[in-house]
Amino acid sequence: MLGLAGCASAPQRQAQWTDPAIGAQSRFLRGEKVLIACDAFDVALRRTCEDQLRVEVLARGATPVTVPAGTVLLNDRELDGQLLASARTLGAKAVFTMTLTPATSSAGSGVSLGIGGFSFGGGGGGGIGLSVPVGGGGWATGFAANGRVTEVSSSRLVWTATLVAAPSTDLNAQFADLSRSMLDTAQSAGLF
């Protein structure tokens, strides 16, 4: 039997910057409250992203807190500055935001190839089959994630990174991978 399968790869880091003053402060956010928020064009995507961020921040020894219900956020500017007042009220040391934007896509061909054999009485045979779906395959999207950490006390950006995921039709799994990779990147920069 011959099988053809695609491999998913971990999100790739495209860029990273850390404030030199924070670089010396190992584990800047460990044991601290961190206000988390995601920025995405779709509510379901945003909530899925925030659920994943919550899990990953908690796993690294910080306490994730979320934007209070009823907070009005404007779409014409980054979330970071808009969330500072809420973060102060909640006692958070930093705001951790992740912006998700579609970055890559691929069209699955849907074509499959099969090889088989059979036996009937005293004879046998084999064959190759090709299957092409009517209407073609599906689309898969890979998202870019830009993560940012803003220190609440100084209102300054202290860390940012951009990761890009391979196209996938399973956005829940893709966001889990992006969140885990983003927090791994933040941890390697000394934030957790």
Automatic annotation (TrEMBL):
Identification of the protein by name: Uncharacterized protein
Source organism (scientific name): Variovorax humicola
